[in-house]
Design brief:
Rossmann fold, five-stranded parallel sheet, two-stranded antiparallel ribbon, 13% strand
């Protein structure tokens, strides 16, 4: 049964799609590895539903009294008690909301119980959410050992879906579209097991990069910590390598930090973006596979309508494998500059000439 469950794990994008489809009626809880973007899903949903108000409710900071408090009301000569809900729940807004119940598995048991009605019936106290409102939740894997627990009576009221941990290629595609430092992308390309799941690693020492519940590690590689590493490297001009390495150790762990710094030093030897866009026919081509990959990632992240022609001239000078890496990434619908590349004349001419590369898509 566990193999079947793993087979039907969802990507974060698929989970968001399911929330958009059924979130007004049923509460989907995204259960997945730490640092894979569960909490940031609220921003994605907000962009998809711009007329909804985004409401973030962090269960880890709440006790029962933080959900609603008594309020005295008068009706003629009679007084009675009603309850005022926390404004973070958005119940008082009387308009469509997107309510994310974050870290539900870590919540105090009394908080979990109090939240079940709004998650099942879209009601809390005397308030009823707008019928177009969406409610969903997030939690970590129980096996991570960070305090997440979903009792059976709670699970029966919601839809628990497990998220697949992003692969190295998923992370690279995301990084290209979100401006990650190319040294981070080169590191992930060279060490794809840095995105492995601890569930597939019996002995923690077999993979020193990742979180593993059987070995306490102060820092390790996740999508979140790779983004933090990118932020550090993007400020490298203001820091020396001693400081940068120390910051990386505290972000992704010692082994990953030292390996990543090797790509930082390699990046210093690569052709600049200006040299490629101004002199595409003579700009330096790296003599290592890792160097070529990093240049491709740099170009994919920087390409625009003005630079696509010279970049295609440069790409045409690379070997077949490197051209395929550029093309397959550019063709992804997730790639932010997809339309710029796919509609470029030099690219379409190249694609027709090298159509054999697309044979796998035609099967």
């Amino acid at each position: 049964m566990s193999n079947i469950t793993k087979q039907y794990e969802l990507t974060l994008e698929e989970a968001i799609k399911s929330i958009l489809a059924i979130g007004t009626k049923r509460t989907v809880i995204m259960q997945g590895h730490m640092g894979i973007g569960k909490s940031s899903s609220l921003t994605v949903l907000g962009k998809a539903l711009p007329d909804h108000t985004q409401c973030y409710f962090d269960c880890t900071t709440k006790d029962l009294g933080d959900i609603f408090i008594p309020k005295i009301k008068a009706d003629g000569d009679s007084d009675f008690v009603t309850f005022a809900p926390n404004e973070e729940l958005g119940a008082h807004l009387d308009k469509p909301i997107i309510l994310m119940v974050d870290e539900f598995g870590k919540a105090n048991p009394s908080v979990q119980k109090a939240m079940l009605r709004i998650m099942l019936e879209r009601k809390i106290g005397s308030y009823t959410l707008h019928p177009d409102s969406i409610v969903y939740a997030t939690t970590n894997l129980g096996a991570e050992g960070v305090g997440d627990l979903l009792p059976p009576h709670a699970c029966n009221r919601i839809i628990v879906t497990k998220l697949r941990k992003p692969s190295a290629m998923d992370m690279i595609e995301y990084g290209i579209s979100h401006g990650f430092n190319t040294s981070v992308l080169g590191f992930v390309k060279e060490f794809p097991h840095c995105m492995d799941s601890f569930e597939d690693v019996t002995n923690p020492s077999d993979n020193p990069y990742i979180f593993h519940p059987r070995e306490k590690r102060a820092a390790f590689v996740t999508g979140r910590s790779l983004e933090a590493a990118s932020d550090i490297l993007n400020q490298r001009e203001e820091l020396n390598d001693q400081i940068v390495t120390s910051l990386l150790i505290g972000t992704i762990g010692a082994r990953a930090a030292l390996d990543m710094m090797s790509f930082v030093r390699l990046a210093d030897q690569l052709p600049t973006l200006d040299s490629i866009t101004n002199k595409p026919h003579t700009a330096v081509i790296p003599n290592s596979v890792s160097g070529v990959c990093m240049v491709i990632y740099k170009l994919l992240g920087a390409i625009d309508a003005k630079t696509v022609d010279p970049i295609m001239d440069y790409i045409n000078r690379l070997d077949t494998e490197a051209q395929a890496l550029f093309t397959n990434t550019a063709r992804s619908n997730k790639y932010k500059n997809h339309n710029i590349v796919m509609t470029n004349r030099k690219f379409t001419d190249w694609a027709m000439k090298n159509g054999y590369m697309f044979s796998a898509d035609q099967q």
